[in-house]
Amino acid sequence: MATADAIKTPAVDLRAETYGTFEGSDDTAWRNTPTKFTPPKVFTKNVIALIIALGVFTYHTMTYDHLLPIFLEDDQGTRETISAIANGSPLNVPAGLGLSVQQVGVVMSVNGMIALFVQAVIFPLVAERFGIYRLFITVSILHPIAYMMVPFLMYLPSSLLYPGLYTCLFVRNLLAIIAYPVILILIKEATPSPTVLGKVNGLAASAGAACRTVAPPVSGYLYALGMFYD
């Protein structure tokens, strides 16, 4: 009879480890003793070098931002004094540009617009064209030029003062605004593991903040000391 055959051959074999659509699995893998986890080294040589580079960068950029308005507003030397300085040592620049507070405010506003243009337009283009590491090397080599240009503005005639000043500001913003995100990107890429990225970023931010704190008083003291001896 059909009923007897069904009893002899059940639909489910309870001795097997397969039930319907669920198949048995080998549990030996998760029963094995796990190996000891070794955390990756956080502060490698590349990470430390890039954090130092970030600290140096934030120090000299903060120094520039701190001294630029002072230099713009400082008393302008007479033509006789400037000629005597030029005949002696062109690196000796004891005078500023003699701008008024209102003129300095306009210059700083234009400087902000230049920075915005470089950040929004130029940086994405050059980063895609040249690559991050090549940009880092280039701006690191060329950065001193942006600072060496500024003192020589006092030798320009009054008709060329503002074109020369805005040229200096453009060069400086071009190099500084490219350098900062490039260094941050390189720090992230040099981090050995995403799990330690918070520690690396924390140390980098602390180093940058410390250098920003030290830069204004040190640069201001050295600037005043230089003016005193001149």
Topology at a glance:
Elements: H1 2-8, H2 28-31, H3 45-73, H4 79-88, H5 101-130, H6 132-148, H7 161-190, H8 197-229
Helix pairs in contact: 3-7, 3-8, 5-6, 5-7, 6-7
Produce a short descriptive summary.
The protein contains eight helices and no strands.
Structure report:
The protein is mostly helical and 230 residues long. The protein has one domain: Growth Hormone, Chain: A (Up-down Bundle), CATH 1.20.1250. The chain has 8 helices and no strands. The longest helix is centred in the last third of the chain and has 33 residues, at 197-229. The model has no long low-confidence stretch (mean pLDDT 82).
Question: What structural keywords apply?
Answer:
elongated, 70% helix, 230 residues, mainly alpha, Growth Hormone, Chain: A, 0% strand, single chain
Q: Which stretches are low in confidence, meaning pLDDT under 50 for 5 or more residues running?
A: none
CATH class: Mainly Alpha
Based on the structure given, which CATH architecture is correct? Up-down Bundle
- How many whole angstroms does the radius of gyration measure? 32 Å
Based on Cα principal axes, name the global outline: elongated
Question: What portion of residues is helical?
Answer: 55-70%
Q: What count of helical segments does DSSP give?
A: 8
What does the main sheet amount to?
A: none
Provide the succession of SSEs: HHHHHHHH
Label the structural class.
Answer: mainly alpha
Which fold name corresponds to the CATH topology?
Answer: Growth Hormone, Chain: A
Number of domains: 1
In angstroms, what separates the terminal alpha carbons? 121 Å
**What's the rounded overall pLDDT mean?**
82
